[in-house]
Amino acid sequence: MFVIQKTTNMRVITATFSLIAVFLAATTISCGQMKEARVSPHDTLHAKDFTVTYGRPYKKGRDIFGKLEPYGKVYRAGADEATLITFAKDGTFGGKPVKAGTYTLFVIPNPSTWTIILNSQLGQWGAFKYDQYKDKDVLHVDVPVATESTPLEQFTIAEQKGNLTIAWDVVKVAVPVQF
């Protein structure tokens, strides 16, 4: 009887460790796949009073605005996770007051103007659930589109002369930011 119980206990222990090993392997594989889900490189712009964290997709010969990113539809302003902008202190964004804090930044591209949106719902992946959270918009500001003569291969957000600029392909917009 002692030998039978010892054998049964060993089988239970072996089965338990096997299940744990399978779980750990599955977790490791799925976590590795989550990291690989990010296709584009990411960057953080560190300006004096604000930061922007965003994905930086490449043009890769594609027509971007009006094709890949349709006119009149909300776009995440980058790749992968929605773009985040953090203001270190109260200021104005596009001439409208904005409180210090972190916001999700979306855009609605159109041929001659873009609507820039700050939304208080953080943790969004792309703009897929924007309609679900659009009631959390903090502000909308319309800015004119400038057409560049040379296409910009990689999506870029920068700070230039008191403006937050967004540029990709032959399109560039500038949003005044003041503190």
Question: How is this structure best described in words?
Answer:
The chain is α+β, with helices and mostly antiparallel strands and 179 residues long. It folds into two domains: 1-37; 42-178, no CATH class. It has helices at 2-36, 130-133, and strands at residues 42-46, 50-55, 83-87, 91-93, 96-98, 101-109, 113-119, 137-160, 163-178. The chain has a nine-stranded antiparallel beta sheet, with no helix packed on it. It is globular and about 75 Å long. The termini are far apart.
Number of helices: 2
Low-confidence parts lasting 5 or more residues at pLDDT below 50?
Answer: 21-36
Count the domains. Answer: 2
Overall 3D form: globular
Look at the helices and sheets and give the structural class: alpha+beta
Helix content: 10-25%
Strand/helix succession? HEEEEEEEHEE
CA(first)-CA(last) distance: 81 Å
Number of strands: 9
Summed over residues and divided by their number, the pLDDT gives a mean of 86
What's the quick description here?
By secondary structure, this protein is an alpha+beta fold. Helices cover 22% and strands 44% of the residues. It folds into two domains: 1-37; 42-178, no CATH class.
Compile the SSE list and pairings.
Layout: H1 2-36, E1 42-46, E2 50-55, E3 83-87, E4 91-93, E5 96-98, E6 101-109, E7 113-119, H2 130-133, E8 137-160, E9 163-178
Antiparallel strand pairs: 1-2, 2-3, 3-6, 4-5, 4-9, 6-7, 7-8, 8-9
